[in-house]
Amino acid sequence: MRFRSAHATHPDWSTATEECLLLLSRFAGDGRYARHPNLGFLYLTEPLAPHAEQILTLLKSRTGIPNWVGATGVGIAASGTEYTDEPALAVMLGQFAPGSFNVFSGTQRPPARGTRTDSGAIAAFTALVHADPETPDLADLIVDMAHKLDSGYLFGGLASGRSGTQLIADRVLGGGLSGVVFAEDVALVSRVTQGVHPLAAAARHTVTQSTANFIGALDGRPAFDVLLEDTGIRPRAPTGIAAGAPAGEDFVRVREQLQSLGRRGLFVGLEPAAAGEYRERRRGDRVRPDYLVRPVVAIDPAKGVVAIGAPVEDGQALSFCTRDETAARKDLIRICAEVRDHLHEAQERDPAVEAKGAIYVSCVGRGSHLFGEQHEELRLIQQQLGDVPLVGLYASGEIGGQNLYGFTGVLTVFY
Questions:
Q1: Is 143 helix (H, G, I), strand (E, B) or coil?
Q2: Bridge partners of 41?
Q3: Which residues make beta-bridge pairs with 293?
Q4: pLDDT tens per residue, range 118-162
Q5: Most buried residue, 59, 204, 212, 280, by CB count within 10 Å?
Q6: How far apart are the first and last CA of the chain?
Q7: Gap between the Cα atoms of 152 and 143, Å rounded
Q8: Residue 159: DSSP 8-state
Q9: Using one digit for the tens of pLDDT, what is the confidence trace for 263-276?
């Protein structure tokens, strides 16, 4: 049975919440939807964040559901709808087998790895995770949380906000990680869509000299020279020819072309150490390898150095990337098609299988900023997957597997 979902916007928190509750009541008695939901998902935009505790209390009281997870953000997602910089909330009520989920936070521990539910399923298999972006050593905490799960797979994102963030895990919290751990028998499929793509002339390079977030050399050559070649600004040097600027190079032209590219977005795609190692245990196939997108933040032509927005290590592989609407649309359609294929295979084994509900966590730099119009990103998902109940967040970072992404979308569908 499908999950129940609703979303509303209003300057008054109580009016917005009551509107959501009214919309949720439409599903009562409809046999296609969850009759006895027992887990709530709640996402709030920043203007409603000061009232998060009151909203949560009202939802608990009126729905009778004690367990809730969610977060606040500068923007939130609903089925075909994007809310940004306006007071809004999105609610989804899911129904899961008793004992198949456990809400966790700094005060509520998840089940220990290897624990079994009453049905015999592994209790800590996957998890929806929300995090405070100001938490120290966040990337390490995400990896540590993944290691507490049998599948090693997390999905979710970092709360976003200009004046602080809040997390929801049965109550309103601040700091750290929280969310809900699902047992092995909770069927879901999750995919990551990239908001960027390698430059047309870009090659895969190996970092051969680096310090912190400064890349001195790629493939044994100055990183700045490689960047100019990959962007097409400078012809690629023949193998064996010493690096360096060609005689008579117009540096004003080079600077203008780099500035133009920078306005569109200049990034590197770093291959994570764990790329492609996660398995979907129900199918036994490998998830397509991904890369971690980090912005190019500075260049030093004199020293040949390129600086990026994250630490990098010698031996890591990377490609220079940019972003555009066409590539983002194509990749979002790709992951939706993979989700549909996964569901089709499940339906061949059991005709009763259907998509019950979805969580979509997208980067704050996507949405209308990347897709051109408000709602367009979410309408595209709706066109591809149909009217599946969906809620989510525009995040300060997206979590997939045990990686902390940027400029991506993480789509997870329960079935």
A1: helix
A2: 69, 92
A3: 269
A4: 999 999 999 999 999 999 999 999 999 999 999 999 999 999 999
A5: 59
A6: 9
A7: 9
A8: -
A9: 778 999 998 754 43
